Amino acid sequence: MHITHFIWQKLLGLAPGEIQSGDTLWLLSPRQHMPLLTQRRALMLVNRCRLFAILFSALTPAWAVIDLLTLPYPLSLQLAALRLLVSAAFVALAVWQPMDGRLPAAYRGIALLFAIPTLFYIASHLMLRRYHLEGLSAAIGAGYAFLPFVLLAGLAIFPLTLLESLAFASPALLGFVLTSLLDLNGDNLPGFGGEFWLLSLLAGVSAIASVSQLAFIIVLVHQAIRDPLTGVFSRRSGEEMLGLLELQAQRSRQPLSLAFIDLDHFKAINDHYGHLAGDQVLRHFAELMEGRLRRSDVLVRWGGEEFVLLMPGAQLAHAAQVIARLRAQGLGERPEGLPLTASIGVAELFQDSCADWRALVDLADTRMYRAKQAGRNQVVISD
């Protein structure tokens, strides 16, 4: 992790001072990405995929006029028909690309976006190699060889991890190798090696550009979704996260528990010791919780001294054990040296028959108020 942090932050200078050491692996693979980042990046990938598809659908058939004027018959007609077919495929991709914020759908879109011109490149090469072109026709025919370079350059507009960039660049490189093998001999072997090296270099530059975009997106997402005082999720991002977790829970029928936490007698801290002391208590509480939670758990500052803890995959009994462990380890310390306590309400999406995440929050909030009315420093997990 320290090596990757040095590479991304020090050597390449990607968002210096902003990318945390724990986030550098996010630039290598999407496996550890938080759901909010995944959703926002998926929407961005789909939008850019549709933009490219629309652009290619217009430009691809336009070049057919040049082919018809310069290339011999029936080659020009065959290429024109192929271009119309490819244009129709781009239109279909732009129209039917789903905007559901899911990464697999974005992957399919980008894969098709690169597969369509790669197949066009292979098919056009098979057509062109049957003809001996000279003069202007040879120059126009040679232009088809630059399509892999255009594809790999276009990869740079997508915010991708390093592994994703290499995966999407592979078909273009493979298509170039396959077509080159058809005409490869001792005379043109050096030319093939030089072109392949240039393509690989272009793929590497595009990968760096894609990873750089992703690095700045990570920075912006961190700044947008975090509470500036405590560093945990803000209420707005917490609500967005709840919507995603509820959708995942409904699809997989996995439990989703939520704890509504209200720090006891917090107003007295601000009144007697000042808001700076109160801010320090909030920061320390958030820091303690973040260090003790599972990777999948999410702590949200709901407002003031109120926090919401999201526990995907945890049933009520498990959630109660988590809260008991956190309370036993301590929630922090008040300025006067006494232990910090909280009134906590816990609810679960399916066991409590909540209609949606809003009902889940309301129920946990109601149980939290019952804990306060019962004398504070308590946990209520049922009605």
* Number of contiguous helices: 14
Largest sheet: 5 strands, mixed
The count of β-strands is 5
Basic shape: elongated
Q: pLDDT under 50 segments (min length 5)? A: none
* Percent of residues in beta strands: 5-15%
Q: What sequence of helices (H) and strands (E) makes up the elements?
A: HHHHHHHHHHEHHEEHEHE
Distance between the termini: 46 Å
Count of spatially separate domains = 2
**Oligomer kind:** single chain
Structural class: alpha+beta
GO biological process, one term: cell adhesion involved in single-species biofilm formation
Domain GGDEF: 254-383
EC number: 2.7.7.65
GO cellular component, one term: plasma membrane
Question: Would you spell out the secondary-structure blueprint of this structure?
Answer:
Blueprint: H1 2-11, H2 35-62, H3 64-70, H4 75-96, H5 103-128, H6 135-142, H7 147-154, H8 162-183, H9 189-225, H10 235-252, E1 256-263, H11 266-273, H12 275-292, E2 298-303, E3 306-312, H13 316-329, E4 342-348, H14 357-373, E5 379-380
Parallel strand pairs: 4-5
Antiparallel strand pairs: 1-3, 1-4, 2-3
Organism: Chromobacterium rhizoryzae
GO molecular function: diguanylate cyclase activity
Keywords: Membrane, Transmembrane, Transmembrane helix
